[in-house]
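2024-03-11 09:14:02 INFO worker-7 job=invfold-0412 stage=load source=structure_tokens
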């Protein structure tokens, strides 16, 4: 009997010790975003690794299919997925006009660029270039908020010509710009690389090209979710 009690006590002590030393496994967070926010995925992965790491699952849905209650964190650009739910601003970004290096012109007016993206102005010489060359417009596929922003603010509520090449995301736009001479596109300024050249829009209102990066959550942010949101904010504010 004494031996049995001793054995049971030893088992209980081992169980208690192992319980005290076990490292809790972080809960997996589901982060969903709209197509326009795809370029923020590297930021999400960086923050995931910084936070011990914090396991996250990243999903993309068309903005009209995003359900704030289906994910821990929902990220969109410009407009929230669910207007009647609490909205947090993670940061902001700006659209910048780019072309393949070297740029045929250094600057354009807002009227000129609206004419280009509405299909009225089709040659670089009209914009002040020394040589004649057709302008190739590169845009985003329907459903991408960046495309909506270009059409509403840049093209003055006009649709981009059907002949424009439409890409899935910013990475694809950048790749095509570097491959096609005399092309024009808008990308987030945070995504600028040395392989392209930006063209300034002389008389553009600073608010014209700016847009917010928004977040919504199904519960009040706390714990790992709050840490993730703060990390994303810090990263975006450094750019």
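2024-03-11 09:14:09 INFO worker-7 stage=emit residues=239
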């Amino acid at each position: 009997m004494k031996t049995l009690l001793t054995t049971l006590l030893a088992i209980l002590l081992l169980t208690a010790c192992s319980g005290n030393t076990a490292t809790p496994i972080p809960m997996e967070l589901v982060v969903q975003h709209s197509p326009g926010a795809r370029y923020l995925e590297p930021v999400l992965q960086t923050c995931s690794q910084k936070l011990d790491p914090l396991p996250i699952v990243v999903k993309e849905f068309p903005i009209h299919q995003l359900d704030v209650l289906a994910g821990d964190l929902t990220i969109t650009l410009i407009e929230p997925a669910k207007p009647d739910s609490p909205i947090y601003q993670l940061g902001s970004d700006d659209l910048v006009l780019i072309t393949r290096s070297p740029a045929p012109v250094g600057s354009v007016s807002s009227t000129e660029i609206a004419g280009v993206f509405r299909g009225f102005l089709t040659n670089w010489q009209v914009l002040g270039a020394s040589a004649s060359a057709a302008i190739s417009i590169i845009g985003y596929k329907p459903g991408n908020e960046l495309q909506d922003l270009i059409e509403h603010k840049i093209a003055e509520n006009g649709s981009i010509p059907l002949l424009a090449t439409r890409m899935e995301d910013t990475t694809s736009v950048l790749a095509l710009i570097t491959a096609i001479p005399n092309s024009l596109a808008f990308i987030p300024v945070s995504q600028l690389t040395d392989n392209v050249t930006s063209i300034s829009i002389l008389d553009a209102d600073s608010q014209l090209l700016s847009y917010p990066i928004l977040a919504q959550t199904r519960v009040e942010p706390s714990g790992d979710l709050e840490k993730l949101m703060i990390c994303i904010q810090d990263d975006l504010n450094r750019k």
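2024-03-11 09:14:09 INFO worker-7 stage=report msg="The chain has two domains: 27-92+211-238, 93-210."
2024-03-11 09:14:10 INFO worker-7 job finished
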